[in-house]
Design goal:
Elements (H helix, E strand, L loop, with lengths): L7 H10 L2 H7 L1 E4 L1 H7 L3 E3 L5 E4 L8 E8 L4 E10 L5 E6 L4 E5 L5 H34 L1
Parallel strand pairs: 1-7
Antiparallel strand pairs: 1-2, 3-4, 3-7, 4-5, 5-6
């Protein structure tokens, strides 16, 4: 999933018209340092049940589980993060995925585990290719 244009209006149009299967990938958050080291990946799509930490705003540094994700508006709702309406009722506060950090992944689904493994293998393949390129560059320098 790559947006070809760098024009902001076309990027906004892509996000507005994106199909659901791509919206799921867009609603992704960065991993904590522990998860980055364990899985060797930077970010992963959010899912109900993931434990996250809020990075920005009024609820900064608070943790909770994801209770709901609204793919239409790219919103994530976290357990315990609420505010009062003027009528006095409590309503959950929506967050953008970029303002959250994944602390713990929900691994109850086999398909999610497989997608995580795929991402890890793809990352390892890229690293091997980069190492090969660097080795070839060094050999070229030595020949000169």
């Amino acid at each position: 999933m790559k947006i070809k244009s760098i024009q902001p209006r076309k990027q906004r149009k892509f996000l507005y018209n994106a199909p659901l299967h791509l919206r799921r990938k867009i609603v992704a958050a960065h991993m904590s340092k522990d998860l980055k080291q364990r899985f060797n990946i930077r970010s992963f799509p959010l899912r109900k049940g993931d434990e996250v930490e809020v990075m920005k705003g009024k609820f900064r540094k608070k943790r909770g589980k994801v209770t709901r994700i609204d793919y239409k508006y790219y919103q994530v709702f976290v357990e315990g993060m609420t505010r009062k309406r003027t009528a006095g009722t409590e309503v959950q506060v929506p967050f953008h995925a970029s303002n959250l950090r994944i602390i713990n992944l929900e691994m109850g689904d086999k398909m999610r585990v497989k997608s995580l493994e795929r991402k890890i293998k793809a990352k390892e393949g890229k690293e091997v290719k980069q190492e090969m390129k660097q080795g070839m560059k060094q050999e070229a320098k030595k020949e000169k």
